[in-house]
Amino acid sequence: MSGQVWVAGGGVICGIGADLRACLEAFARMEPGMQDMQHLRSIHRGVLPVAEVKADNDALAAQAGLPASVSRTALLSKIAAEQAWASTGLGSLAPYRTGLVSANTVGGMDKTEDFFGAYLQHPQQGRLWQVLHHECGSVTELVADAMGIRQQVSTISTACSSGANALMYGARLIRHNIVDVVIAGGADALTRFTLNGFNTLMILDQQPCRPFDDTRAGLNLGEGAGYVVLVSDAVAAQLPNGPWCRLSGYANANDAYHQTASSPEGTGNYLAMKGALEMSGLQPADIAYINLHGTGTQNNDESEGKAIQRLFAPYYPAMSSTKSFTGHTLGASGGIEAVFSALAVQQGVIYPNAHFAVPMKEYPFTPATSFSKGNRLTHVMSNSFGFGGNCSSLIFSGFN
Amino acid sequence: MNIYIQGTGCVSPQDTTVVEPFLAGIREYEGDRLKAVEPDYRQWIDLKLIRRMGRVVKMGIAAAKLSLQEAGIDMPDAIVTGTAYGCLEDTGIFLSRMVAQQEEMLTPTAFIQSTHNTVGGQIALLLGCHAYNNTFVHRAFSFESALLDSMMLLQEQAARQVLVGGVDEITDHSHRILSRFGLYKQAPVRNTALLQSHTGGTIGGEGAAYFMLGTERNVRTVARITGLATIYKPADEQEMDAAVEAFLAAHHCSSGDIDLLISGRNGHAGENRHFTRLEQKLFQGCAVAGFKHLCGEYPTASAFATWLGARILHGQQLPQGLLFSGAAPRQLDRILIYNCYQGTHHSLILLDRT
């Protein structure tokens, strides 16, 4: 247990852009990614807006260098993981002891749900290749195998906090000197399974979502993948352009309140943020920006807001939910938002919160509504909270 | 830093929820699927909850509760779960209805419980445990990843008592689909004859095994976990052998120091060579015990093997019907578990008597 863990780079593909640069441009232009479904086949097309990646499986497969028959989640994962590694400028992965720690929530469900139509007609029907990569871990292995990563390959699934937990585990593999480099984050493609699941919970907004707005009425689902490259001190010293920032603190806590709902006090949220602050040795006032979990549901934003009030009052940092652009990308969200947060430290970016108009009555703070660059953001917090009471908070810090 | 198992709990196709007598007899089955012997859950879970919970969740809670009870711990500092398949039963229910009803008239219960971290989340909910909670879903490394996470937490002194386990269930859907991949025996086989089988395929299994881990040895200590390694898709036999030898060297022992090798052979003629090579080349002369004729084959079966190894060390007794080759060891100080899943996922877990 020694040394720092550095963010050497990052990659994102999601509903607002095929790479990180395109995502930043979408934020600057205030263009959220929610639209009518183009690629997912569902009876909810035209009713429930989603933030889809704007490419079909054939195009993604060609870009990823994987067969179009594998899960869209694997395609998205490979594209973002490769972009993340390329952004470090380190060249070949071969010289490094490398891990891939990836999160997802439903594995190859996009293919399994296609399989089930024929299979339910007759148990010997349905094409087996569609369920070959059903397991969450199988999606990760498709990417690891394609990138030649073998030392540590693992998959985490803790619902909507999965991606953040992947970063925590990856950072600890480096601090324990098990590997030098970890590509950590998450991926999830839209599926009818998750769309209908969230729809039965009645937390999907038929309008573009409005996180932390008093009129918010639920979330919009999105899809994508996001990975950071975490490296040890020794590897950070070799980075041609230097690291983006450090991963200075992280914590996971459990709300232990309900399988899907957050406690009204936001107990788990509070404990995760507080734990991350303690690990990084910071005070609440040191945090310059929070990338909120901010799903736009009544329950999440109220609980998250309560925990923020308890921890930060009376001085609140800038904050926003980038899910108002990307939609809630579930297992990918912790990874995507980690990339945005790490870049926020490096480039001083405060991301806007789209569709915000009416402040929540309960709280004195409001999210940022415009894009700005060049802010001095020494410490940035990223929150991810999920089903099963799973709450995670990460802190990214500058080093000058 | 030493890491000790302070308590164990296991739900499996054998009578494992009762610690004494330890595997007095092996339950015999005929067929290609071993179903867990489920305990009366009412001793741990409210009846109203039992009716709503999926089997995998109940098995996980039972095993977790048993290990907490044996360790004398009410509240762990962390809960870490490994499950390759997650909550298959509820996933299958929601998926089938969604497809059959063409996305209409659906209810949320099965979806809510289909999330992969439901077992870990429900244990936390039941205990009121706000501590670290993580779930690894990485195929046949799910339990191994959970164990590595737990050992790191203890080494970081981020936790003093970690509850860690592995759990997976079979459902009718999963068994039917995995059968179509040719994973299981075509002709009926008795589980007690599985390891001597000369045909392809194995028997599917399921179960949950949880452990309380701590760093201080006490009167309740069951065994010590000395080492853990995973080897993913080794390029060739040389790489595999080198990894095993490096593992032994890292723990200052040689193959001669291993009193018992618990081997993950599963009766699949096509996979025997992985085990035979290791048993005969690297651990020649070492007593070898099998375990998949007891629990069946599933990605987190290594958690069952860890339970078995810990109980053998603690009781200093190798139950009847486990020895696969060699002579029953007179003394049991050190056990190595070698598992290999589908020829691609190899893991080693080293246990010591305390």
Residue stretches of chain B low in confidence (pLDDT < 50, at least 5 long) are none
Biggest interface, CB < 8 A: A-B, 64 and 56 residues
Order of helices and strands of chain B: EHHEHHHEHEHEEHEHEHHEEE
N-to-C span of chain A: 24 Å
Shape of chain A: globular
CATH superfamily of the largest domain in chain A: Thiolase/Chalcone synthase
The percent range for strand residues of chain A is 15-25%
Percent of residues in β-strands of chain B: 15-25%
CATH architectural group of the largest domain in chain A: 3-Layer(aba) Sandwich
Overall shape of chain B: it is globular
Give the number of domains of chain B.
2
Q: Which residues of chain A form runs of ≥5 with pLDDT under 50? A: none
The total of helices of chain A stands at 12
Helix % of chain B is: 25-40%
Using the 3D structure, state the CATH architecture of the largest domain in chain B. Answer: 3-Layer(aba) Sandwich
Mean pLDDT of chain A equals 97
Q: Helical proportion of chain A?
A: 25-40%
In the CATH hierarchy, the third-tier topology of the largest domain in chain A is known as: Peroxisomal Thiolase, Chain A, domain 1
What is the alpha-carbon Rg of chain B in Å? Answer: 19 Å
The total beta strand count of chain A reads 10
Keywords (chain A): Transferase
InterPro entries (chain A): Beta-ketoacyl_synthase, Ketoacyl_synth_C, Ketoacyl_synth_N, PKS_Beta-ketoAc_synthase_dom, Thiolase-like
Protein name (chain A): 3-oxoacyl-[acyl-carrier-protein] synthase-1
GO molecular function (chain A): 3-oxoacyl-[acyl-carrier-protein] synthase activity
